[in-house]
Amino acid sequence: MKLPTVRVAGTCLLLAMLAAALIFGALTLTSRLGSTNSFVLIVGGAVVVALCCLPKDWLPSAALAIFLVVPRVALSENDFLNTITPSFIILVVWYARSIFAPRPEFAAVKSRVGVAYKLIAGALLAWLAASVFTNGLLQTSLAWCLDLAVLGLLIVLVPVPANAIANLQRTFLWAAVLMAAYCSVEFLVQRNFLFDPIYAALNIVPAQHWSVYRASGSLGHPLYAGLFFSMAFGVAFGKRLEGGSNKYLLVAGISMLGVLTTVSRNSLGAVAIAAGVIILPNLFRRSSLSPPAKIALAAAVVGGVFGITQASAFQDRLDSDEAQGSTNARGVIVDLAFQVAQASHWIGSGPGSSVSAAAPLNPRGVIIESAYLQLLISVGIPGLLLFALLIAGGVLTAIKYNAYAGLGCLAAYAVSVGFFNVLESSRPTILLLGFALLMAWRDRPIEIGENDPMKPPVGALSMRTAPTNNAVGARSR
To answer: Residues 172-192: pLDDT tens digits?
Structure first.
């Protein structure tokens, strides 16, 4: 018997907080004793408790909750746990429980991934396997490939029950609301009051060094927080265009507020592009929204994005010397990436090795602030093209099935990672890529085989006809 949604959601949050407390204690103990044994035991115990208490369909949501609650930079202090994170273990158990589930449970699987994804993902994994041994950093390459496979690619291949993706989307949105509330307070008080003491106890230097304070929440850097908020905006805005109620517009607006607190220019651009990618195909399809309502939504998003850019924090950031320096550096890294890629004959220096491969040609130590340029260096043109096909295929599949939540989430991810070094510099964050691919490739708001593939989901609310007592009436700001 499945637990009620609210009860399970509360259990997810409680277990995530418990895991965070245990992991913080283990990290502190490790830093003082110099041993990882107690760390591994405590983290393993916390994960086992979570796995035993949660229904299988909530395990991806638990993986996301623990990823957001446990400080990312704290795990990076331990090489083993930077690869085998608690979320990694949860997904492995979810894979095992899904694959070996009793046959009646397979009837609940809403959709299966097509041949296209299997071919692209298989080709990418084969290319990575062949590339692992082309450089001297075998351990780094193996760890990166393992995380990409488990956190990013295999998640789309396992049998996914119909409500598992819905649970994941709920968790995404509730987490965005809570994280935005925390980041708003952090931005106002100009201090990460919950996580700075943790970083101090672990001798970790906070990333805060800008002339304008930028909130980061539990993710350790405003760019990572901005990435999450822009993806949450894509999910919320997409759910409204799928026929959901106006409460999703409220969550989308809260996610935009979260982006404002990070003062991240690329995240703001990701919000705008995600909204455009969702609205454009919807304009040419029948849905629960009339064309004027769709245009009004687009105008509201444009107005909200413009309003954010006019905020004093964004204006100060745009006018600051470090912002100009960051813009200039992005021009330099393109030339650097092409030089390094050419030196490896465009086939890559080895997965996860972009920083070390670029070092001989990068005496100033310029950060390669683009996941795509990192991939160009490490896995070459073949690997980069296969990765781009995963993104493009997910976008087309989401448009085909009107999976606008997955479409917005994946579009926001694809734009954001083009402007900072997320794929190779933070392997645990590959989890967000996996969830975006899962929602884009596997979500089916419209059942396959219906006579009218453009027909909106049953029970969808119309912006024109929705009862007043059911709509929140929130406006995107």
So the answer is: 999 999 999 999 999 999 999
Do 383 and 430 lie in a common domain? Answer: yes
**Structure tokens of 399?**
């448009």
Where does a domain end: 107, 137, 160?
A: 107
Q: Tell me which residue range forms the domain holding 94.
A: 1-107
How many CB atoms lie under 10 A from the CB of residue 96? Answer: 11
The residue from 107, 137, 155 where one domain ends is: 107
Same domain for 166 and 303? yes
* Residues 165 and 69 placed together within one structural domain of the fold: no
Residue 477 lies in a domain: no
Classify the phi-psi angles of 346: left when phi > 0, otherwise alpha if psi is within -120 to 50, otherwise beta: left
Are 103 and 118 found together in one domain? no
The pTM is what? 0.82
Mean pLDDT by 10 residues, the chain (477 residues): 48 52 50 50 60 80 91 78 86 84 52 82 92 77 93 89 87 96 95 89 82 90 95 95 90 94 90 89 69 73 68 58 62 89 92 91 88 95 96 94 94 94 92 96 62 37 37 36
> What tokens appear for 87 in the block?
């979320």
The verdict on 35 and 121 lying in the same domain is: no
- Residues 351 and 401 placed together within one structural domain of the fold: yes
